[in-house]
Amino acid sequence: MANTGKRKGRRERPDLTFGGVWDYAPAPESTDHVDVAERYGLFVGGAWARPRSGKYFATMNPANGRKLSDVAYAGGKDVDAAVAAAKKALPGWSRLSGDDRARYLYRVARVLQERAREFAVLETLDNGKPIKETRDVDVPLAAQHFFYHAGWADKLDMLFPGQDVQPVGVVGQVIPWNFPLLMAAWKIAPALAAGNTVVIKPAETSPLTALRLCEVFMQAGLPAGVVNVVTGDGKTGRSLVTHPGVDKVAFTGSTEVGKEIQRAVAGRGVDLTLELGGKAAHLVFEDAALDQAVEGVVRGIFFNQGHVCCAGSRLLVQEGVHDVFVRKLKRRMGRIRVGDPLDKNTDMGAIHSREQLQRIRELVDAGVQEGATLYQPECELPRGGYWFAPTLFTGVSQTQRIVREEIFGPVLSVSTFRTPEEAVAKANDTSYGLSAGIWTDKGARILWMAARMRAGVVWNNTFNRFDAASPFGGFQESGFGREGGRQGLRAYVRLGAGLLPG
Ligand code: NAD
After folding, report:
1. Distance 95 CA to ligand 1 centre (A)
2. Alpha-carbon gap, residue 358 to 364, rounded angstroms
3. What are the DSSP E strand ranges found in 276-311?
4. Atom of ligand 1 at shortest range from CA of 232
5. Residue-averaged pLDDT of the chain
């Protein structure tokens, strides 16, 4: 076992399926450490299982490049077994009353809250993001999604009045590495609330919190097979989304893979929702509270090292305040603390992987070659692991790669606009459409702008705020379908003929 801090207590628990893979869990009161097993199995039919593929892969700590654990690789036969387990569990789960399903979801939410510290530390270790974010954002929001959807489980008839509401069936879900636990909660909670069963595949570089969530499901007594977790790479994901036993596919990840999945499921009568990439415009008007706007812009791009689909990566500042705003922004960037993700004072942690670091470097080099002006504050980056300094480009043009392509890193480009019309035109000049932000003192302008922006979420005088009750999703190449809110549940039900007389 790799121990990652002080150990206060340890509670033995029965070996669940076979020795050595997962033979204990930390006692609930042990909140200042997290133990990581040397090996993790697959979670199929309510139990840990060795992969039929016989293969394992390593998951690393991006902050030091060292291995955390070996994780089972699910091949085609493993995916078959997981889908079969979900199919077997479906009649029992979908026939439970909404009230009973809600009880399970409430239990999951509460256990997650009780084990919040452990999940925050584990997420930080496996992902590289600062503990202050996993503690204050990822884990509380993940619990909130289970609470919120528990609340709907017995009210689906009110959500879709007069209609016969049925679950879709077995749902195949594939998630990315940037919010591993939160994305799992976004996907699993609404699916279960609506009576579906799930096979989910976490990203290959950050599978540990989804696996630990299985412990929570066990603790909550969730019936076997209702949620199954298959770990692996894109090939595992492909086996899942093309599996004939899967009735609905929900994918979050890159636009490139989303398009591939859309082609793969086309014509098969499988329901599909896609949450893909983004290149959000973040607009600052002359009448905005500039110091607050600076904070919002910093949060918009440097939160989670910029590994955020809705990151405000294209800053558009009204011409009259451009110089003063950029000056303030540079000063603020100089105070961003980059370093050990487990340090509670750290603002920006490690870049998630070597591949992601290479992509960021490639695009930043392209920005310089294409003539934009690079600024990075003086900051000492840790040795070992993967790191990149907060980065700002000024003097950019709409045609440059740094303005058009999703960088998915801590890199912001700044340009200007004169009028609201020009701001809208520049903001919408993108193939994506996931989110946008507007900073202005004028309420009427906010409404005028928001009505014209092609973005699924438009934040006003704030950025990167999330809530389970608020639908999230994109336009254009950012995907289709919504997650969260009442709208998010629509993707997990089939609506039949009206039940109301007449
Ligand atoms: P990715 O598309 O490379 O991988 C996402 C997941 O898909 C992983 O689990 C991967 O193993 C799997 N996968 C890869 N190829 C597959 C295939 N052919 N079939 C099925 N599954 C396959 O994306 P990533 O690098 O993990 O994540 C970053 C991307 O995710 C960014 O583009 C980001 O904008 C996007 N994202 C979007 C949202 C949203 O809500 N719109 C949220 C988070 C991240």
Report:
1. 33
2. 10
3. 281-284
4. 11
5. 92
What is each CA distance from 70 to 12, 40, 73, 163, 236, in whole angstroms?
Answer: 22, 6, 9, 47, 16
Q: List Cβ neighbours of 188 (8 Å cut-off, separation of 6 or more).
A: 173, 198, 200, 213, 227
* Structural contact between residues 336 and 295, judged by C-beta atoms closer than 8 angstroms: no
Question: In 3D, which of 321, 278, 276, 328 has the Cα closest to residue 298?
Answer: 328
Domains contained in the chain, CATH given: 17-275 (3.40.605.10), 281-468 (3.40.309.10)
CA separation (Å) from 144 to 97, 109, 138, 185, 362? 22, 7, 10, 9, 37
Please calculate the CA angle 193-196-200 and round it to the nearest 5 degrees: 100
pLDDT(26) > 50: no
| Calpha distance 101→426 (Å, rounded) | 46
> Rounded to the nearest whole angstrom, what is the distance from the C-alpha of residue 253 to the centroid of ligand 1?
2
Would you put residue 498 in left (φ > 0), alpha (ψ -120 to 50) or beta? beta
Torsion of CA 58, 174, 245, 225, to 10 degrees: 70
**Calpha distance 43→210 (Å, rounded):** 10
Q: What is the DSSP string of 337-367?
A: -BS-TTSTT-SB---S-HHHHHHHHHHHHHH
Q: What is the pTM of this model?
A: 0.92
The pLDDT of 157-182, averaged and rounded, is 96
Identify the pLDDT of residue 22.
32
Looking from the CA of residue 479, the nearest atom of ligand 1 is 41
How far apart, in whole angstroms, are the C-alpha atoms of residue 340 and residue 382?
8
Integer Cα distance of 275 and 285 in angstroms: 29
Q: Residue 497 class from Cβ within 10 Å (0-12 exposed, 13-18 middle, 19+ buried)?
A: exposed
Length of the chain: 502
Mean pLDDT throughout 76-100?
98
Mean pLDDT throughout 360-383?
96
Best probe residue, ligand 1, of 231, 235, 252 (max atoms within 8 Å of C-beta): 252
Closest by CA position to 379, among listed 371, 391, 389: 389
Question: Is the confidence at residue 16, as pLDDT, over 70?
Answer: no
Q: Which two tokens stand for residue 417?
A: 């606009």
Q: How far apart are CA 126 and CA 63, in angstroms?
A: 9
Q: Is the pLDDT score of 24 beyond 70?
A: no
Active site residues: 275, 309
What pLDDT is attached to residue 496? 87
Cα of 278 from ligand 1 centre, angstroms: 12
